[in-house]
Amino acid sequence: GSGSPDEFIHITRISLSPMSLDFGTQAAGTSSSQTISVTNSLAQPVSLVVSVGVGNAGIGTTDFTEIDTCGGASLSPGADCQITVTFAPPPTLSKGGPRSASIILNWGAGPQLVPVKGNALTKLTASPQTLSFGKVVAGTSAKKVVTLTNNTGRT
């Protein structure tokens, strides 16, 4: 046909929306979920297998889980399925910071990846994280203030 190259790209793959997920900041022991829609833009049915794989830094991959309606059956042309991704830093988190993973969709043409990321907060954070007392004369004292913040939203 005389279709544009964009038309050919669109009809030769599965479509993902959104193409990435950002969970923002999440406290340890809490969770949030987001959904990816998968549409079969091919002219034939496809079988999908969805899994969670290592992210950019490989840190926090286990903080992400997925439940989907894509696997186990063939996805007809034009049909869609959903992948619900949950970011849940564990309650025992000892070090906060960036977390990442990839949602992997394996199908006949090879894998398609959806990068997912979030920032994990420990239950308590201290500010400042380091203290410097300089020189303190023996027999005297020096004081510093440290603020502890409860990141759980609970008292």
Please explain how this structure is put together.
- This protein is mostly beta strands and 155 residues long.
- It has one helix and twelve strands.
- The strands form four sheets. A four-stranded antiparallel beta sheet has the order 1-3-8-6, with no helix packed on it.
- The termini are far apart.
- What is the strand tally? 12
Oligomer: single chain
Secondary structure category = mainly beta
Shape: rod-shaped
Main β-sheet description: 4 strands, antiparallel
Secondary-structure element order, N to C: HEEEEEEEEEEEE
Give the percentage of residues in beta strands. Answer: over 45%
Low-confidence stretches: 1-11
Walk across the major sheet and give the strand order: 1-3-8-6
The Cα radius of gyration reads 23 Å
Number of helices: 1
Average residue-wise pLDDT: 81
What is the rounded distance between the termini? 65 Å
The helix content, as a percent range, equals under 10%
